[in-house]
Amino acid sequence: MSANVIKLTPSSLAALLCSRVCHDLINPVGMVNTGLEVLDDENNTDMHADAIDLIRNASRQANAKLNFLRDAFGAAGSAPGVFPIGDIQKKTMDMYADSKATLKWELSTDGLEKSKARLLMNMVMIAANAIPRGGDVVISGDESQLKLVATGRRAGLKPEIEKALSGKTPEDGFDGRSIQPFYAGMIARELGGALTHQSDEESVTLTADFA
Q1: What pLDDT was estimated at residue 92?
Q2: Cα maximum dimension of the chain
Q3: What pLDDT, in 10s, does the model give residues 185-209?
Q4: Phi and psi at residue 197, in whole multiples of 5°?
Q5: Does domain 10-210 bear CATH number 3.30.565.10?
Q6: Which end of the chain is less crowded, N or C, counting CB atoms within 10 A of the terminal residue's CB?
Q7: The model's pTM
Q8: Which run of H or of E encompasses 118?
Q9: What is the predicted pLDDT for the residue at 78?
Q10: Residue 139: which residues within 8 A CB-CB, separation 6 or more?
């Protein structure tokens, strides 16, 4: 491992990843709470139908995020195994159903070893965040290489994300957002590979190569 790559303590990594999970879930959970408050208001019965729709939509989002994050950050058991691409694709598409990013799947394999599947899901998170104004994320590769190309207006990676991807500490330290790309790079390194990135004015390319 490169001397330039830092190592976080297990407790720090766990705490930061938990912060990221909470960050992703707080919005839909808050929406459920808002909907319930409206339903509890007997003086606002004309808004009850809208509140029910809000709760239904928020519950769908929370469920999709939990299913995705459980595999993206969780171990899914310690035994070796292969994740079917169909399962990865469904959970990822559900996660980003309301996103401005359009995911296009061009993988040439039916399944990925669980660590590589976890890496792929984390790469999707980075790629989708790289095109906040919307665009396409093309997902390709196999067991030897994973490649994602995010194309859209003002595409790019923030400096703290680039540093975290390279295994370095962002200037202001890690937070719930920057820990996720650091974790992605860590997975790649533990697999004996490397996660690299390239950017231009309209696209960001993420590539994970395995030895």
Answers
A1: 97
A2: 64
A3: 999 999 999 999 999 889 999 999 9
A4: -145, 150
A5: yes
A6: C
A7: 0.91
A8: helix 114-129
A9: 54
A10: 103, 104, 105, 106, 107, 120, 124, 146, 147, 148
